[in-house]
Automatic annotation (TrEMBL):
This is Ubiquinol oxidase polypeptide II. The gene is cyoA. It is found in: Cell membrane. NCBIfam families: CyoA. The chain crosses the membrane at residues 12-32, 44-69, 90-111. Residues 138-250 form the Cytochrome oxidase subunit II copper A binding domain. Residues 375-384 have a biased composition (Polar residues). Keywords: Cell membrane, Electron transport, Lipoprotein, Membrane, Oxidoreductase, Palmitate, Respiratory chain, Signal, Transmembrane, Transmembrane helix, Transport. Pfam families: COX2 (PF00116), COX_ARM (PF06481). It comes from Sphingomonas plantiphila.
Length: 394
């Protein structure tokens, strides 16, 4: 009896696998069935590319079985040609079919890459009358995203609110994300809305998308960033216009102000951070995050670049340096200002958003890419050198 037990278990394995198949019905294929047009077109690219590649894979697998059966040793009726070594017709088929598929894949990839470029904004609905302005409710919704350790901060400059680990947007309204990070590189990804794009310190990336149906979804970081990475998730809500307005009003009524001091406390590493809402946001806070100068008295990158472009400060630049702890145990803002080391500010210049213009907006459907111009990536905010005060002589 003991000898038959392993054999019985082997026989039951296929039945166990079949019994587990119904459980897969609860899996949501959000990547292939998303709620946003951009993500849907990306899913279509995956399906079409897979189908094109199967045009080669399936015939090869079928012919492998066919030749193995047709020309088996026991089949005496099969043609036997031991000296056969070439067929022009067969060579044409073998090389022409993959070549055509590669051409199709290349054309599809080129068009999809340019059309679905994350930096390329979606076309907003046209005004009702020629020359009339587009209503504010139809313009792209700007959302400023900051990847913190280990949570997400969303700033809505138009609405004057901010949230932690909660993102909401009205359905059928284009969304324009401006994304940065406070310390290490992360990857911002809402599978139901659009593709993922990196969030990096000292840089600003962009992503455009739109929800075409309401629902509750999940966003997360797709790039490992430390101990709290697995819990770095946030709720992504697609709401009706009235429900979104009510959500904004609730944040304004219950939230607390978000200033630089509050941000520096929020920036400290923490895990499983609950949803938090802020009713007011300090102006240009996102630009200060991108320029790495949220700490009072620290020089912003756009000031530093402007000074370097004019030749630097000479020997006087040696004395405007303070301590700054910058490691995984003490990120920016986790230590008192006097105990940190950084380049101190010597002047105040206007903080302005990124000056790089967005590419020409396009309509995401149909999937065509003729006449699209090359996308130029944005650069961090910077001030014109003419606006900088004169530097002292060294």
């Amino acid at each position: 009896m003991a000898k038959n037990l392993p054999t019985d278990r082997l026989r039951l394995r296929p039945l166990i696998a079949l019994a587990l198949l119904p459980l897969l019905g609860g899996c949501g294929l959000v990547v292939l069935d998303p709620a946003g047009e951009v993500a849907r077109q990306q899913g279509n690219l995956v399906m079409i590319s897979t189908a094109l590649m199967l045009l080669i894979i399936l015939p090869v697998m079928a012919l492998t079985v066919f030749f193995a059966w047709r020309y088996r040793a026991s089949n005496t009726e099969a043609t036997y040609k031991p000296d056969w070594d070439h067929s022009t017709q067969l060579e044409l088929v073998i090389w022409a079919a993959p070549l055509l598929i590669i051409i199709c894949l290349g054309a599809l990839t080129w068009v999809g890459t340019h059309l679905l470029d994350p930096y390329r904004p979606l076309a907003a609905p046209k005004a009702e009358a020629p020359g009339a302005p587009v209503p504010d409710a139809e313009k792209p919704l700007e959302v400023q995203v900051v990847a913190l350790d280990w949570k997400w901060l969303f700033i809505y400059p138009e609405q004057g609110i901010a949230t932690v680990n909660e993102f909401a947007a009205p359905v059928d309204r284009p969304i324009r994300f401006r994304i940065a990070s406070s310390s290490v590189m992360n990857s911002f990804y809402i599978p139901a809305l659009a593709g993922q794009i990196y969030a990096m310190p000292g840089m600003e990336t962009k992503l455009h998308g739109v929800f075409n149906q309401t629902g509750a979804f999940t966003g997360f970081s797709a790039n490992y960033s430390g101990a709290g990475f697995s819990n770095m998730r946030f709720a992504a809500k697609s709401l009706e216009r009235d429900a979104f307005d009510a959500w904004v009003a609730q944040a304004k009524g219950q939230g607390t102000p978000l200033d630089r001091a509050t941000y520096l406390k929020l920036e400290k590493p923490s895990e499983k951070e609950p949803v938090r809402r802020f009713a007011q946001v300090e102006p240009n806070l996102f630009e200060q995050v991108v320029n790495l100068c949220v700490e009072p008295g620290k020089m912003c990158m756009h000031d530093m670049m402007a000074i370097d472009a004019r030749g630097g400060m000479g020997r006087d630049g040696i004395y405007n340096v303070r301590d700054l702890a910058y490691d995984k145990f003490a990120a920016r803002g986790t230590l008192p200002t006097l105990d940190t080391r950084y380049v101190a500010a010597i002047c105040t210049t206007p903080m302005v958003p990124a000056i790089a213009p967005d590419p020409k907006p396009i309509d995401s459907a149909p999937l065509t890419g003729a006449g699209l111009s090359r996308v130029r990536q944005s650069t961090p905010s910077r001030t014109a050198m003419s606006d900088l005060p004169a530097l002292p002589e060294s």
